[in-house]
Design goal:
cell outer membrane, elongated, OMPP1/FadL/TodX, mainly beta, Long-chain fatty acid transport protein, Porin, 14-stranded antiparallel beta barrel, 57% strand
């Protein structure tokens, strides 16, 4: 039993952020155009996409949006016709931005609050992988004060400090039974903090093309004194001391982005972004428990992720002075190597399509809506630690809405 329990605790997926947890929902205009925005001047979401562009914005902004995320995954165990589905749960990534500076001046100040990482998954307690995961709810909320400076009419720079507030709530079954044959239960719940930065540069070329380069740093997030709650038969309680806590640290990866804006006519805007996510910093997942027993030991679990790339493109058409139509799409590679796929985010190479529209409700008030469909390629895997073996098929549906007031 000791080996089984040590092994299960070593797998703890609570913090194993993968490409699947990088939600990329920081602005409705940008979502509608395939998540492009590094090389564009659009709205206050430049705080996230490229702080260097903020000083070039012709107006000040206050805006907020939400993008309810519906994650649907099915697991087919190897050698079986059984199928296990995630429950219908809706995550709520959000964003808020405020950008201000004197009109026609050389600087602007901004603040962003957004959720670049997060996930909500619930497989229930009756599926084959219940000893790996039953449910997971995690969020990483970034708070970013930002300053941008216009160096010349054609170039501006900017940067901001990032403070991260992370939370996790995970449940899984333990392969020990009570007198009624019910599995034991483990729940890990806690919050953590981390620090980083975001900086960018924005250019206007003589040919009319705009170019942006942005770098978002790694954010080391540490959870201290998280609650480790175990529900087991009274005869086993001494092996799982209560109350108990854990400490863990995980690096949320840095991202380098290059973006372009093209303007073939007054009504058309085209954009392309390339994003390189430095997931290779994530080598190991380790947990330190405040109270150990012969059964409950500190854990050390390899992850060995690789860097990932996403290619994005989008377009906007100004149908009138008030109505704007948007469309886009992209392709992203997985960060998770074969043998390391886990059910909290059964990651795989993926493609997605987006659409959206913007409407001017008033001269200073904009309404933007978006929709995204994301398909992860089918992936058949045997996890090298849990030996959970089968095929994951996953689809993601994301509507979104925002309001922006500008002056």
């Amino acid at each position: 039993m000791r080996k089984i329990l040590l092994f299960l605790l070593a797998l703890l997926p609570a913090l194993s952020f993968a490409q699947g947890f990088q939600v990329n929902l920081e602005g409705q205009k940008q979502i509608g155009m395939g998540h492009t925005g590094t090389g564009l001047l659009q709205d206050g979401a430049s705080v996230f996409f490229n702080p260097g562009a903020m000083a070039m914005l012709p107006q000040n902004y206050i805006q907020g949006g939400i993008s309810p995320l519906i994650f649907k995954s099915v697991f087919n165990p190897s050698g079986s016709n059984d199928q296990f589905y995630t429950k219908n749960k809706i995550a709520t990534p959000f964003s808020f931005y405020a950008v201000w500076g004197p009109k026609s001046n050389w600087w602007k100040f901004g603040v962003g609050v957004y959720t670049p990482f997060g996930g909500l998954t619930d497989w229930g307690n009756q599926w084959q992988g219940k000893y790996a995961l039953e449910s997971l709810n995690l969020k990483a909320i970034y708070i970013q004060p930002t300053l941008s400076i216009k160096l010349a009419d054609f170039v501006s720079i900017g940067g901001g400090f990032v403070y991260n507030i992370g939370s996790v709530d995970l449940t899984r079954a333990i392969p020990v039974s009570d007198a009624n044959g019910n599995d034991g239960q483990a729940r890990l719940k806690g919050t953590g903090h981390g620090y980083g930065w975001n900086a960018g540069v924005f250019f206007k070329t003589e040919s009319g093309i705009t170019v942006g380069i942005d770098y978002r740093s790694k954010v080391n997030t540490t959870i201290k004194n998280g609650n480790a709650i175990f529900g087991v038969a009274p005869s086993l309680a001494a092996n799982f001391p209560q109350p108990n806590t854990f400490t863990a640290s995980i690096p949320l990866p840095s991202t380098t982005s290059l973006g372009f804006g093209f303007y073939p006519s007054k009504r058309w805007t085209l954009a392309a972004d390339v994003n390189y996510v430095h997931w290779s910093v994530y080598k190991v997942l380790a947990f330190d428990y405040a109270q150990n027993t012969a059964t409950l030991q500190d854990t050390y679990s390899p992850r060995n992720y690789k860097d990932a790339v996403s290619l994005r493109g989008g377009a906007q058409y100004a149908a009138s002075d008030k109505l704007f139509l948007r469309a886009g799409g992209g392709y992203a590679t997985t960060a998770v190597l074969d043998g390391y796929v886990t059910p909290e985010a059964p990651d795989a190479n993926r493609y997605y399509f987006t659409g959206g529209l913007g409407y001017k409700l008033a001269s200073r008030l904009d309404l933007d809506v978006s929709f995204e469909y994301e398909k992860l390629l089918s992936r058949t895997q045997t996890n090298i630690e849990s030996q959970l073996s089968g095929t994951f098929k996953t689809h993601v549906y994301i509507p979104g809405v925002s309001l922006a007031y500008h002056w």
